[in-house]
Amino acid sequence: MHLVNDGLREMMRAMSSIRTLNLGYPRIGEHRELKKATELFWEGKLSRQELEDTGRKLRRQNWIKQQAAGIDLIPSNDFSFYDQVLDTTCLLGNVPPRFGVTRADFDTQFLIARGQRGAAENCEDACGCDAGHVSTFASEMTKWFDTNYHFIVPEFRADTRFKISATKVFDEFAEARALGIHAKPVLVGPVTYLSLGKGQDPDFDPFSLLDQIIPVYEEILARLAAQGATWIQIDEPVFALDLNERQRDAFLEVYPLLARAAGPAKLLVASYFGELRDNLPLFLGLPVAALHFDAVRGKAEVSALLEKFPEDKILSLGVVDGRNIWKNEFDDSLSILTAARDALGKERLWIAPSCSLIHSPVTLENELKLDPELNDWLAFADQKLAEVVSLSEILRGRAPSSVLTENRASHASRGNSPRIHNPAVQARLAAVTPADSDRKSAFPIRQKLQKAKLGLPLFPTTTIGSFPQTPEVRSARARWKNGTLIGVAYDAYIKEETRRCVAFQDEIGIDMPVHGEFERNDMVEYFGEQLDGFTFTSHGWVQSYGTRCVKPPVIFGDVSRPRPMTTYWSGFAKSLTKKPMKGMLTGPVTILQWSFVRNDQPRETTTRQIALAIRDEVVDLEAIDIAAIQIDEPAIREGLPLRRADWQRYLDWAVDAFRLCASGVRDETQIHTHMCYSEFNDIIGSIAALDADVITIETSRSNMELLDAFVDFNYPNEIGPGVYDIHSPRVPGVGEMENLMLKAQALLPAENLWVNPDCGLKTRGWPEVRNSLTNMVACAKALRERAAISNH
Q1: Which position among 150, 515, 539, 727 bears the catalytic label?
Q2: Which of 67, 321, 489, 539 has the least C-beta neighbours within 10 A?
Q3: 631 and 585 Cβ atoms separated by less than 8 Å
């Protein structure tokens, strides 16, 4: 492929009146090359040089692909081996002191994200021994705004000092330049970075570090400008949030200094994921050359934006949805762009996706098995870039008429397709009454009946559901799907894995076992495959965190359950033990949040359709005497609108959807739910309103801090505060787990406490799982012994 040299490209750009822009491109590779290489590196099967070569190859492919598509402003530093916020932490030298690292080199990012296993993994006092204990816990991880992408949370202290400690942003700009691509470096903005971080002292204000961080950003910008950067993108998505006065003052203080430090380089500040509302004047007043606005999430605000847009700035309008996979409706986008062109002039209008394309799969080109009609309705990252360029060409009058005609035909096909609407589903939903969302009795009555039926000890132990998905399990599933392993043989294999899993739990003394979920590929995909209204891609992977990639289902039509989905394997597992087997389901909000969702009806309607399908499954599990049923809802918090004023309406329908799917059973059937990596303080009332008999949550990384919300609220139902961080490879000792549970016991009634991991064990290996769960059971026994002594 011919690369255009810098001078010629700049001349071509100058001849163009409306430029095209991309904010970020998927980093994982069309076939998850980055995931596979990174995990081989962690396993010691790939050298650091080979991993870096993989990254270099992917970056080259990404840059050339964007150039070939016709994108004028191509991003650099949007690539990451783990997470862009973590990269910023390393760039700024903000490495937590516990890691003992003074310079943020290549390996530091993995150290912060994954923790460090030391020689004293089984030390009973993991928090304070002086016997050479060097095991170090990873930094916290949480959701990136309201997406299913996770970032590593920056940590701040009073003695935090910033300095340029990594060269990635400079190296990748030079790398693109060497390819003949004059890239636009991308940085996470300082106000967003400080806003998303966490003070290690609860009373510490991260914005007290503003004077420390500004000079480092100034130095970064000056260095990029000296390298020849002409545009630098600074992402400040906190503009879509409710800003406090400290944040507002920070914007006013920071950006005059950064604009000056950039010198000849021009700054583009990007906001995305939502409307600006009361932040609009602040955003428009930034002393920068260009502003990016998300015209998909903020469509209703475009007119106000254009009316007030300053005469000295360029507007980048994100009209192509970077977070969903539906083909852009050109007529709709062109109405927005035409209004912008008329208001601002051609020279001050750029066209872009709404946000970074890391939330989109890479390309439709590999989807050879996708239904042709459905395929025609979709657009992945590569197709979205083509849409941006097509919109630009149409607006300039350069595109053939067939481009717009074909786009209109695709949308007409989707709107008129009979596969979209199911009258029976719509009629059933219309017949739902408020009574359908209520359990028969209040929790105290249910609790007594459940304790009598289950016969569990104090501090009962369980797990969140999944057990390690070994290479052998994944291989067997892949061979079954491609037809090289016949169904009978695959069934026998999964049964044997399930037998081993249940036997292991019985052997170590887990009180409420699970079947391990070896037949399941993903907690959402598995259910979507069995529900009407869903379709699936072969290569539609997106990054969730680190090397964790998910392939979200596509919800294209009305949802229903044609047949039972989990009763076969739950019933088989129940036959293997005398203990109460827990059935495992994914809740309606999580299925919605972790899918690509149809955009032709309210999300609430789609969620309630899913809830009715899950309700049918819950009732069927009870019918085969599954006495405890877990309905996972880790995405409830994630689904919150970014603005607090919009929360209650969402929480009302999200809570109702859970209750609708959980309330068709008898009082003695125990309903569990699970939520991970969420701050619960501001929605604890809604969590309680779910009325689950047992909730399990992540608390180990936060050292039980997340329990405070439940304590302050006087949470009435049972709770399992996780004692084993499954996102880190380290094995916690018995004493470490016991200390965490003693903290929990000091806050909540012992009879309401469960002992469990933070999350499912799918991504972990069997050796660490065996050791960790054995320690967890020992922890529960120690707690019971303490309680017995105390009672005597």
Answers
A1: 727
A2: 489
A3: yes
